[in-house]
Amino acid sequence: MAPTEAPLRAPATEVESTAIPRRGDVDPAGGKAGAHLAALREADIPTSRSGLPETEAAAVICGQLEAGADEDALVRALPAVLPTVTRAQAVEVVAIAGELYC
Fold this sequence. Notes:
The protein is mainly α. The chain has a domain at 52-102. The chain is built from four helices and no strands.
């Protein structure tokens, strides 16, 4: 019999992606999330009833900023993630997340 070979698989990466937080990793009722959501609402930026999409977006923004991402790139990408946010509002969303959530 021929020896069996291990199945091919992609090489393991040293660092896991933090771009998309798991739902259990964010809590829209938490302290910093509550302050973040209140600031968004105060700035007349539309938010969902639960606040979960905005909290997930804030977590992604923070992770990207910590990784050295360009704020302008985040602003340009944000309306695709939060469709109710305009590009002009995206500037505020990134700033608020950076100040209150990160």
